[in-house]
Specification:
single chain; 409 residues; alpha+beta; 5-stranded antiparallel sheet; 10 helices; 13 strands
Length: 409
């Protein structure tokens, strides 16, 4: 009697899980899903399908025709957004000062997460307001730093295994503008502010914000939330470039990226992640249904700004930034190498699984305004010449007539 044959895993990416399993997920749970999650799933299922129309490219050398359907450009889409990430990174990098930076992270305690998941707009706004104010208030204290900060904050809501885990990363320069606005005050080498008072100040500020904006919410939050110390982490981040690179990967997409998600013979999927303790790669086996459920937890409210700038890093504070640059110009700065980030810092999420293939993203550039068209056109598979976009059609319109019909999927 022969031994049973072990079927191999099949390779795939996260968007393929959505295409294959999200329709059944919507059919089963659609009526119970928040409208926002239903809307996002529908956008992602229409991405690069005939529903949204497409574009026709032609090779000027050999005449080969090439079709691509339009992208949905939803910020939660695992295949969209890469065209915007690189210009965003360039813009933020240009604002970095020639000083050391710190990565400060504020994390919501477990007892607050259930309420925040049900009230994301209120919860995220409160967390931004309270954490930014905590940093500014402590930095302004003459016994601590005695300066006003400039900060870039980015909201993340996920852990490596996609568990709901709201936290805000702040990239903060190691110093600030003196209270009289006349000089740069540097922090101590390798130290910005103590995290214990930052945690307590953030907790108090969060509660005070709710008392003003949504007092009815206080009765829905467990009392223990206000008695425990919230988790705050601060770490030196060198020039800030490494942290900005990490943050840019999730400014225009959410949680998963388009990483590889192998499918097992029984229909389940394998989610790769790196453990925090030793930094080793592991995988978690989930049903496709559970993977989609975890992903949907991180859908943001419509119009919500996940990236916010504060103090003299705010867009309206250009004059103060230029004043600071003048104060620092010509100043002799000690050369510091950007340190390798410890496992608790976001760079540990960098992995080979969620790199977007350029061929999957080029058409975004042709569906966005000209100022955002940064992704190069496809190259001809026959002669490697850049192809030229010669026609577009919108959803609901008949496709462009050509010797070759556009793909059906």
């Amino acid at each position: 009697m022969s031994a049973p044959v072990s079927l191999p895993e099949t390779n795939g990416r996260f968007h393929e899980v959505l295409i294959h399993d999200a329709p059944a997920y919507l059919e089963r749970f659609g009526s119970a899903l928040p409208l926002r999650q239903q809307e996002v799933l529908q956008h992602l299922l229409r991405c690069r399908t005939p529903t949204l129309g497409g574009a026709l490219f032609v090779c000027p050398e050999c005449g080969l025709h090439h079709f691509r359907y339009h992208s949905c450009n939803d910020r939660h889409c695992p295949r969209c957004g890469q065209a915007d990430a690189d210009p965003w990174l360039a813009r933020q990098s240009a604002l970095l000062l020639p000083v050391d930076y710190f990565l400060v992270t504020f994390t919501v305690p477990e007892g607050l997460r259930g309420w925040m998941r049900s009230h994301p707009q209120l919860g995220y706004d409160a967390l931004f307001a309270a954490s930014a104010q905590a940093l500014q208030d402590l930095a302004a204290n003459p016994k601590r730093l005695g300066a006003r900060l400039g900060m870039l904050g980015v909201l993340h809501t996920w852990s490596r295994t996609l568990i709901y885990h709201p936290h805000i990363h702040y990239l903060v320069p190691g110093g600030g503008l003196s209270l009289d606005g006349q000089e740069w005050i540097a922090s101590r080498r390798g130290f910005l502010l103590r995290v214990e008072p930052l945690s307590d100040h953030c907790r108090t500020g969060f509660r005070q914000w709710l008392e003003r904006e949504a007092p009815e919410a206080l009765a829905q939050i467990p009392a223990k939330v206000w008695k425990q110390r919230w988790v705050t982490h601060s770490q030196a981040a060198g020039s800030g470039e490494q942290v900005l690179r990490y943050l840019s990967r999730y400014v225009f997409k959410t949680a998963t990226g388009n990483r590889a998600v192998p499918r097992l013979p029984d229909g389940r999927v394998r989610w790769p992640y790196r453990e925090s303790a030793q930094g080793r790669w592991r995988s978690l086996v989930l049903s496709a249904e559970e993977l989609i459920r975890r992903f949907l937890q991180h859908v943001l409210p419509a119009g919500f700004h996940r990236v916010r700038r504060f103090g003299w890093w705010h867009p309206s504070a250009k004059a103060k930034r230029e004043h600071l640059q003048g104060l620092l110009a010509g100043r002799s700065m000690e050369s510091t190498d950007s340190p390798a980030l410890a496992p608790s810092v976001p760079e540990e999420d960098a992995d080979p699984f969620d790199e977007l293939e350029r061929a999957e993203t080029f058409v975004e550039a042709h569906t966005l305004p000209a100022a955002k068209a940064t992704v190069p056109p496809p190259r001809c598979p026959q002669c490697d010449r850049p192809m030229v976009c010669v026609a577009r059609w919108h959803g609901g319109q008949p496709p462009v007539e050509s010797a070759r019909a556009p793909p059906t999927s």
